[in-house]
UniProtKB/TrEMBL annotation:
The keyword Signal applies. The keyword Signal applies. Keywords: Signal. It holds the Pfam family DUF922. Residues 1-20 form the signal peptide. InterPro entries: DUF922. This is DUF922 domain-containing protein.
Length: 177
């Protein structure tokens, strides 16, 4: 059986929309383990594993000395209940591939954070943030799909190593996405 992995991006407009389910924030100090993948394998699924991860944000505004200020938080999350794997066909390489999907979500969460900090928002901030968020999500989706295609869903070991170095570099801030 071919070892194929897939990813799901869960997009939320507010942290509160998804609080009812378990979520794991991205951390440089912890890596995914197979025990974190708690979802059931869907009937007819062809993938070896699926990592459900995405970006969430919240913000508020206030005025200081007559100027609008924005207090915001952007974070990447992993969703265990929506993530699953097939133990009989997965291995350490598959797990590394899945971890990189989560890491890529973090790269784009940082990109959104950076763009939020550099944007001069107007009174239409809610719409402006929504437009920024949707654009980042589209870029994230394209990036995730390219990652799967170029690595052949983890089967191309050399490409997988190349992507590992690229993502690690991005997380260390050595280049931009």
């Amino acid at each position: 059986m071919k070892c194929i992995s897939a990813f799901i991006l869960l997009f939320t407009l507010s942290c509160s929309l998804i609080r009812a389910q378990e979520e794991v924030p991205w951390s440089p100090h912890s890596k995914l383990e197979w025990k974190d993948f708690k979802g059931d394998v869907p009937l007819g699924a062809k993938a070896a594993a699926t990592t459900a991860s995405g970006i969430s944000y919240s913000f508020s505004t206030f005025y200081e000395k007559g100027e609008m200020k924005v207090d915001y938080q952007v974070q990447a999350f992993f969703y265990p209940a929506k993530s699953w794997y097939r133990p009989q066909i997965c291995n350490d390489i598959t797990l590394l591939h899945e971890q990189l999907h989560f890491d890529i979500s973090e790269v784009f969460a940082r990109k959104m954070d950076r763009e939020m900090s550099e944007t001069k928002f107007t009174k239409n901030i809610k719409q402006e943030v929504r437009v920024l968020y949707k654009r980042i999500l589209k870029e994230l989706d394209v990036f995730q799909r390219r990652y799967d295609l170029e690595t052949d869903f983890s089967r191309n070991i050399e490409k997988q190593k190349l992507w590992q170095r690229q993502i690690n570099s991005l997380l260390k801030g050595e280049s931009s996405s």
